[in-house]
Amino acid sequence: MKIRQVLERYLSCELREEISEKNSEGLNEIRIRADEPVILKYAEREIILKTALSRESLKGLVSKMSEYSPYAFREQIKRGFITLKGGFRVGICGRAVIERGEVKTITDFTSLNIRIPSDVKGCGRELGEIYRGGFKNTIIISPPGCGKTTLLRDTVRELSRQGFTVGVCDERGELNCFDNLGIRTDVLEGFSKKEGIELLVRGLAPDIIAVDELGGEADKEAVLKASYMGVGIIATLHGEGFEQGGF
User: Fold this and answer.
1) Would you give the end-to-end CA distance of the chain in angstroms?
2) Which of 18, 172, 225, 241 has the smallest set of CB atoms within 10 Å of its CB?
3) Residue 175's closest CA among 198, 159, 199?
4) E strands, 100-137, where?
5) Rg of the Cα trace of the chain?
6) pLDDT tens for residues 75-101?
């Protein structure tokens, strides 16, 4: 799914038309906050639109994005996002519904952030040159919005071209959103990193496992366990540097 299709499928006619009047090249995010003007964010600028959506409109938008089946998307929603086809991740803010000390879902939505995936073919070649003499475990670290996922995606392609069997644990459906990760690449989508990495190691015999956005201790333990079993790891991590990432 491309950005034009996302606009046509989910957004109101008024908002869709106003966005379509702008240049979509380089568009990174569509920020929608209840009762505030929608903001288009580019790498070095932003455009504030005239259109604003009410809380009721945000509720309807989330319902539409979850295909009118919030139960099917409840695991994503309670973690604060929905992944649309094509790798468009929609961040969600609102009120947490707590049961027995755990977040069960989010309601009373106050803002949405539609993140636009980009596919920059060739950006992973320079990193791929490092692996010509043999793969080295790699963590790509940067703050949000700097292109970690884009670089990881193309590096997976490069590793596949070089002859490595790559297993991708695509928890949020963002790595394989363009369906072209290489002929030697196997993808598990929707699994947690812990579950996905274990399945890849047991069943697919990868040389390398690629994962996006390592998080807590469970992710750390999963990649370390795979590494101890002789599988290479390439992953991304939010942070300003290696020490801040906690690995």
Assistant:
1) 35
2) 241
3) 159
4) 102-115
5) 19
6) 889 889 898 888 888 999 999 999 988
